[in-house]
Structures are given as C-alpha cells and as structure tokens.
Write a structure and sequence with these properties.
It is a single chain. This protein is an all-alpha fold and 449 residues long. The protein is globular.
C-alpha cells in the first residue's frame, strides 16, 4: 500500500511541523532583531529567514530523502561513534538542557509573570512550570495524535492570535522602518548578523529531530515509497516555510516600527509585551500570555516526543518511550527554574558549536546525489568544520573561559580566519574540507568504490 496524500492531509502535517518549530523564541528574537537593526531590518530579516526557515526546511527534507532511520543514521555517515555523539548532544540541546526548558521559562517570564504577586517569583515559576510541562507530557505520551493536537487544534488558535497582533501593526504602525536607528552590530554586516541570530531559534537543529516525526506521520497515513515520502515532505515543509517567512517578516517589521514610540528593549520578550500593551492596553497582557503559552506548548510537545523517540532508538535496551519522556520532562522542568537569562547565556556557545556541524550535515546530504553519498566527503568536511566549530564555542564561552590566557592565545589564531568576526569563520574551512574529500574520492580507488 502506498497512498498519495490529499492537499488537506499535507496541510495539516505542515501545520503540525510549523507548530513544533514556532515556539516563543521564534516570537521574541525577530522582534528584538527588528529593534536593533532599525533601518537595516530588511537585510537582517533575510539573513534570519535563511537560518530560521531555509535551513530547517532543508533539514526536514534531508531526513526525508536520506532513507536513513533518523539523525543518528545520517550522522553515522561520518562514523558510528560520531553518530552517537552528535545525535545525543543535539537532542539534549534542543531537549532537556536548553530549548525544552526555555519553552516553560519564556511562557512564564513573558506571558504570565505579571499575573503573579511580586516577591513570589520563584515559587510561582515552579508551580507554573510543573503545570506547563505536565500538560506537555500528557500530549507527548500520545505521539500518534500529534497531527491532531498540534496541527489541527493548537496551531490554528496560535495563528488567529498572531494575526490579530500583525494586523494591528500593519494598520497602525508606530513609526517608519527607514527612520529606525541601526545599532553597531547591524551597521556593517546586517545580513550575517541576522543569519547568526537565526541560530537562537534552534530550528535547524530541531529540523533534524522533527523530520523523523514528519516521516512517521506520513507512514501512519500510508505513504511508504521513498519518492512519495520525499514529495510529501516537500509539500508539508513548504506549508511550514511559507507560514514562518510571513510571520518572521512581520515580527521584524513590528520591532523596527516600534522604535517610533518605544525605546530599544533589553530583549524581545520585553519588546513584545510593550508592543502588545500599546495596541491593546490591559487586554494585551492576556493576549500575549495566551499567545506565548500556546506557542511554547506546541514546541514543548514536539521536543518531548522527538527526544524520547531518539533515545529509545539509540539505546533500545535502556528505558521505554514513556520513561524517557517522563525523565526529560522532570529534567527540563528543573532547568527551567534557573531562569531565562541563564538558559540563553549557557546555550549560545553550544549553539555556535553545533550549528556549523548541523549545516554541513544538511548540505552534504542534500547534494549527496552528486557524489553518490561517498562517506569520505562527509568525513573530511565534518572534521575540518569541527576544528573551527570549537573556535566558535570558545569565543562565545563564559568570560572566565574565553578571556583566560590559554584560550585567548588560541582565539588569536582563529581570529586570522576570514569571517571569524561575524561568527562564520567555519565556512571557508568547510569548503576546503569538501574539496579535499572530492580530491581523495577521485584519486583513491578504494574511497571511490
């Protein structure tokens, strides 16, 4: 049996994918970027969309076309040990260590903290996160229902609320984009700054996890042939891509135009709250609280499910899906209570390390047809990129580490690499690694076979 999905079925799976991708981080980062980029927000938005939309789409597609059993199968093309290491690190990053706990903390700090009395922040955050992650766990324990829960229920509600805020911005802008002050970091390299800002969404990383959920959903509906899986993956992915591009564009515009009446905020959460209150008064607090809570809940459900499935697949003789889901929920809830600022600060160096490696894996998979998936190209490109990804990690590590004598000496060497200052020092080395792999493939008969 091999079924071709209807437009409606493809749309709802695409809606599920968008719903899992689009959490509160996807709301706050483009708004803050718009405020900082000001008149240069268009270039910044394009760069942001490349990493926050284009790469996630390619990541989902890479899983769909690779005919692998998920991220570990894909990463194992570099080596078996690398497959386990990279897969575990990526899932722990988007799962219980950073992205997953961030969903609960963001929901509280941006949407609901105003409704709790001052002086009780810690206990109210604890109570809220227990309830929030408990609801997320309840949904995640029924993975076969994800299309219904996220694609048909939560996501449509989110889109309606998001449309209300966007329409208010379109018809009553606070100012003009062209008049917005451009902060220093966006004056020279607005596109590349937007590109690296897209890392914060973690969506390119999540795509390698959510891609498995998409293919599972397709197979549950009877799509089995590889070609049909690829076609349906493209169709569902495009639904998610179109929605994200539209919303990212308007959120950036929202942030840039807000400078007409609001001061530059410390972060996108504060900016979004101020914008919401400007347009809707006291009701704006309620609107934002519901919007953010739904956005985060959608993502939390997807992350819980994908992480639990991944660890069951990697370690089949350890815990069950249910046990892993509960374990990650408890761990994520505990980490959420350290606060949003600390979670973001600790996640940045890890993201700067993982993103180059994830991008290289996605691109190599997308073009594998040209070199017949020869593993030596995967190896040379990844290992060379790894050296420079370590440099990005060290550069963005806590000050005590980054400014220590031995690390500073190492970073001075990395600083000589082109594009290092804008967080893209790994690009040319990755290209050199790919070229080296091609040369070895062509000249080495053993590698070519």
């Amino acid at each position: 049996m091999n079924k071709k999905l209807t437009f409606k079925e493809n749309f709802f799976i695409g809606s599920m994918l968008f719903g899992m991708f689009f959490g509160a981080g996807n709301l706050i980062f483009p708004v803050h970027m718009g405020q900082e980029a000001g008149a240069s927000s268009l270039l910044a938005a394009i760069g942001f969309i490349v990493t926050a939309t284009g790469l996630p789409f390619l990541g989902v597609l890479a899983i769909g076309i690779s005919d692998s059993n998920g991220l570990r199968g894909l990463a194992s093309r570099i080596g078996k040990k690398w497959g386990y290491f990279f897969t575990a690190l990526l899932y722990l990053t988007i799962g219980p260590f950073f992205a997953y706990p961030r969903t609960g903390t963001v929901s509280y700090e941006i949407g609901l903290s105003l409704f709790f009395p001052k002086g009780y922040e810690k206990i109210s955050l604890l109570i809220f996160t227990i309830i929030f992650f408990g609801i997320s766990l309840a949904f995640a324990l029924k993975p076969g229902k994800l299309v219904v829960f996220i694609g048909k229920v939560l996501n449509p509600i989110f889109l309606v609320l998001m449309a209300i805020m966007i329409l208010a911005t379109i018809f009553h802008p606070m100012g003009k984009v062209a008049l917005g002050e451009v902060q220093d970091t966006y004056q020279k390299f607005a596109f590349f700054k937007g590109f690296t800002e897209g890392y914060n969404t973690m969506d390119a990383l999540s795509s390698l996890a959510f891609g498995v959920l998409v293919t599972d959903a397709l197979k549950r509906l009877g799509v089995e042939k590889p070609k049909e899986v690829t076609k349906s993956t493209i169709k569902t992915g495009l639904v998610s891509v179109i929605l994200m591009i539209v919303i990212y564009s308007f959120l950036t515009y929202m942030g840039a135009t807000s400078l007409g009446k609001l001061a530059l905020s410390e972060n996108g959460g504060i900016a979004l709250a101020e914008i919401s209150r400007h347009y809707f008064g006291g009701f704006g607090n309620i609107l934002l609280a519901v919007l953010v809570a739904i956005a985060c809940l959608k993502t939390a459900i997807g992350l819980t499910s994908s992480c639990a499935e991944a660890f069951v697949e990697m370690f089949p003789n350890s815990l069950s899906y249910r046990s892993y889901a509960i374990l990650f929920t408890v761990l994520g809830c505990a980490i959420a209570n350290v606060g949003l600022t600390k979670i973001i600060a600790l996640s940045i160096p890890v993201l700067m390390f993982l993103y180059p490696l994830a991008i290289v894996l996605i691109v190599l998979t997308m073009f594998s047809g040209f070199y017949k998936g020869n593993y030596i190209i995967y190896k040379t490109t990844t290992y060379v990129t790894l050296i420079f990804a370590i440099g990005e990690f060290l550069k963005n590590a806590p000050v005590q580490i980054a400014e220590s004598a031995p690390v500073s000496a190492v970073l001075n060497l990395y600083a000589k690499v082109p594009f290092y200052e804008i967080g893209m020092g790994w690009v040319i080395p990755a290209l050199i690694g790919a070229l080296l792999g091609i040369i070895l493939m062509v000249t080495n008969k053993k590698a070519r076979s």
